[in-house]
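P.,

For your records, the input lines for the assembly:
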Amino acid sequence: MLSLIIWSCGIALEALIVYRGFRAGLLTKYSNFYTYIFVLLVSDGLGLPLYFKNPKLYESWSWFGGFVILFLGCGIILEIFRQVLSAYAGAEKIARFAGFVILGAVLCFAIVYHYFVTDLSAAKALFFRLQRDFLTAQAILLFGLLQVISYYGITMGRNLKGMILGYGQTLGVTLIALALRAFFGARFEQAWGLSQQISYLAALAIWLVALWSYCANPEPEATIAADGDYEALAARTRNMVGSASTELIKVNRL
Amino acid sequence: MIQLISFLLIGALLLVSLYSFMRREQRAEGGSGALVEARQALNTLQAGLLPPELVGRIFAREDLEYVDSEGSKEIRELFLDERKKIALSWVARVRKQVHSLRRFHLRSARFYAQLSVQTELALAVDFATLLFECRALQVFMYVRGPYAVPRMVGSTAATATRVCKISEQSLAFLTPAYAGRMGNRAARL
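Structure tokens returned:
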């Protein structure tokens, strides 16, 4: 019963987010994000009546929807990358580099992992495993992006902060729940389902508030106007750090 | 079990990062407020707190010898305690300057499309090392006291001046007129 209430609330929130996105003119600004929400709305909206009328069809529909939504989730991460770092060419380059390194590491992990683990038979097991691996890659990418944001002191508007918080908390909670489910098995099934639904509902509530109206990212102010003297800036900073370091070592050795 | 721990760790790390991301202070971009603040801090340090002769006077060994000549153990302990506080306060100032320099560099570097990943990584290591050295110095002073090693006074003063110069170079473009304009813009934010 509780599950059905959460499900219905979720559909209402999804519809409201899409409606507000349309009214506030956000659909084109955050196209990846709204594609994700729209597919969720269609999947849940069609899934609810099917659940009561034709449970067998619902079963296959939900697995199909699950896979599509899983892949579309990457679109949100890309949307966040695009929006957050668009004004910072340097930080974007670092983030892109970090992204390639992380994706390479995840790919290596996936190859090595499947070389040793070959018991991928049931579709359900495949989905959970794929979901966990996919979400892990997304969680690592988002974690990396958060570190870059923090390191370069990048500020952002309410829309993006909400997008990151909502999707990030769902990623974190789902990943923890999936790991516990894989470890504890059927005993954790009920708690797993409930935690998933609640974190998803929380994400929808966060998105609804954060994306109620358009809130642009604060305009960054460049401290140096020219774009051509990065080498000079980096060399000067390195000299400064080196000098200070040498002096401190001298003090330490006294 | 290893798999469980690693996935739990990734999930927990992401949640902790999100928490600190939401708690992060939304400063009015490094371009105005932070830079004016850095310039003002530097002026205060150079004008009132770190002239070499003043630091030398505060840490003068003759003071300790004079206190020793009085023969009071209580006064000596009180004196050393005060001096230690000053030395620790100085290292804290150096750390602050290094942080200021790093903040300035990052807030400039993030705009450069031709930014070098290798240079940035090397700089990140340099800054981390320097901050670690400052922390080590703090521990050293806390444990052994400001008079535990000879020539500490001169070196500390020299280092302080050096770091102030470093910060001044990094903020050299910020002339008083420019700082005034930036200050006005920051005040409007």
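Two observations worth noting. Helices of chain A lie at 2-23, 31-53, 55-85, 89-116, 123-151, 158-184, 189-210, 230-253. The domain at 2-221 of chain A is CATH 1.20.1070 (Rhopdopsin 7-helix transmembrane proteins).

Regards
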